[in-house]
Design brief:
By secondary structure, the protein is mainly alpha-helical. The chain is built from two helices and no strands. The mean pLDDT is 85.
Amino acid sequence: MPGAPLPPRSSLDRGSRSATTVPEMEMLRRRVWQQQGVVSLHLEDITDPWLRQAIQNEAVRRWGPRQQEKTHGR
């Protein structure tokens, strides 16, 4: 309706921004590591099975198990 007030804006509005691309995520990971010393790793990117399991074990110890997707019909 012309002249009607605009809907409220929110930083939680996901509809106005496209998904983050892989190169953008890599830049964010690099920046957060260099500036804050925080490491963000994708488990599937770690090729050494022992190291991958050690990192997964530490994450589970600190933050609990990951939520698994629910599969219907099982």
